[in-house]
Design goal:
Chain lengths: 94, 648
Amino acid sequence: MKELFPMKQILGFVFSLLLTVIALAVYFLDMSFSTGMTILLATAFIQAAVQLVVFMHAGETKDKGAIYTNVYYGVFIALATVFGTLLTMIWGYN
Amino acid sequence: MDFFDRFAIPHPSLAIYASMVAIVLTVIAIVVGLTYFKKWGYLWREWLTTVDHKRIGIMYLISALLMLFRGGVDALMMRAQLAVPENTLLDAQHYNEVFTTHGVVMILFMAMPFIMALMNFVVPLQIGARDVAFPRLNALSFWLFFFGAMLFNISFVVGGSPDAGWTSYFPLAGNEFSTSVGTNYYMIAIQIAGIGTLMTGINFITTILKMRAPGMTLMKMPMFTWSSLIANVIIVFAFPVLTVALAMGTLDRLFGTHFFTTNNGGMDMLWANLFWVWGHPEVYILILPAFGIYSEVISTFARRNLYGYKSMVASMVIISLLSFLVWVHHFFTMGQGALTNSIFSITTMAIAVPTGVKIFNWLFTLYKGKIEITTPMLYALLFIPLFTIGGVTGVMLGMSAADYQYHNTMFLVAHFHMVIIPGVVFAMLAGLTYYWPKMFGFMLNERIGKITAWTIGISTLVAFMPMFFTGLDGQARRMYTYSESTGFGPLNMVSFVGAIGLAIGFILLVYNVYYSIRYASRDISADPWDARTLEWATHSPVPEYNFAIVPHVKSEEALWDAKKKRHILFQGNYEKIHMPNNSGVPFIMGSIFFIWGFALVFSLWPLAIIATIGILACMAHRSMEIDHGRYISVKEIEETETKLRGAK
């Protein structure tokens, strides 16, 4: 019975609902712009990871290595591009 | 007649009218020729609808050579204009259009398809596969590239060429300063071709990861396949940035948005930023497969296994990461602070380390090798010193403080030509000569080939070395003329002579093809170079199914070890082979994309909407279509194999 009950998926579903509620709170609670954006970004990334691992079954086939390498590579490039652009055009701009 | 006014050229000249006539005559000649020789059916069945990776590779190759001609003519016009001071061959506007076209054509429509040609032809053979993972998608990639290129190429006779440089920086490329439809062509044609490239990236990553012959682990893949894998990974991560940037630019130009404008919250510098976020990885998309070709050629003709296989792979992986961290060095002078520039200076210099590792690996492969100087090897040997000149001047440009001196001068132009020509063009010519017998079943003439290689090698130096000096003396790039008192005249004349030399090199290349078609022996073995990897284990020209029996691989150099250590590649009996069916949909969809692009360029909204529906209809058709492919029977395989063996 235990093997048939999708515990991981149900917990994942509850967790993703929780993340949605936290993100929604940014709209209803009064907070500064930067705090709000930080919460939204953090919950968005965690949400994406939950979807990928729990519901899109990354890591459950023998392609696990290729899939995770790809994801890490993508995250690295996205972060480098976004922060590099911010550095170039805003923070480091005279 | 108002409707047709928009198609007029805003800045006509005699040369453009002559080109119009030439284009019309060529099209008529092709149509008449095809009809007269009754080749329409052949063209449609064997080429336009093909999903065979080898034929798609050959079509890429033909497109690349045509575009090399077009870009080369543009280059000759520029060098002729600059050969003497105060020249009036081209005026400023015309010169702008020519250098813009030259840049776009050479990078996106010559170098890219050349690389795609070799990747398409070689990679499935090297890994012992029957085709790529998604053959239909592969055909679509080609036709999107092709129609994108054609759309770009008609710009100069219909509506006017883009004239804002191949980088197309805003605000210059915005509606305020570029009023003709030229820059629309740039945005939309590159978009269409870019979607095709992105699909190729996905296709080849899947092919290389999933379709290798049994026994070929990742670390037993030939080096060209490794370099293609890395290049395609970079494509998949870099091209979406270009897609987005071009879409934003298109919205700015056609729909009045304010992404890159200087008012209403727009940020013109963001274009330069996004362009180079794609643009620098693009450089490595071009150079890594070229490095792969050199690795194959050098180890074949030094008769040694490649020195430092693992370090070659590691250096490419590191390059693929670093290539995304250096883009700001293309605009050090845009105004970001010293800290930002220093960070990107350091990452730029860091990338010279893995590149250096590769250069030393080639040198160590040559060391104590039994070197045989064939045409491909000659290109590889010319590449090493010439590329090093381009490389070290690149490190000079990479120092942000010094870059203020070199920025936007001919020094920069000389640098990137000395990198791209020996790096990419020599590699492609080496690859073309090396794989020619596999593609067509006869070899290119070695004697003419070597003369061509020397002509191109020396002319590259003659054409581009003078620019280093005029650049340091202050000659700016993209200036259509200069006064005599600057003293740039003589060196620019030398450069013009070099450009003519390169043109002669191209003519020799074409002559070599003609000569070899007429006189070369068809009686060659499947492995005329005594090579080391799997693609040489099948017949030349390659049968449709590539390998009658799927090879079993035990080492990095499968064929060499089969020859020397008696590894058995092919065991078992023939079995029926599953192959994909041909399809006309990719070609039709490409044509509709062409119409869609043309409609957007000229803001013909009803036509654009109809074309969009057409594209969606093609996609829906593909989704509903039931096509399980077909089987080649054992009898058919036996017949083909006997015939091909008999020919040897």
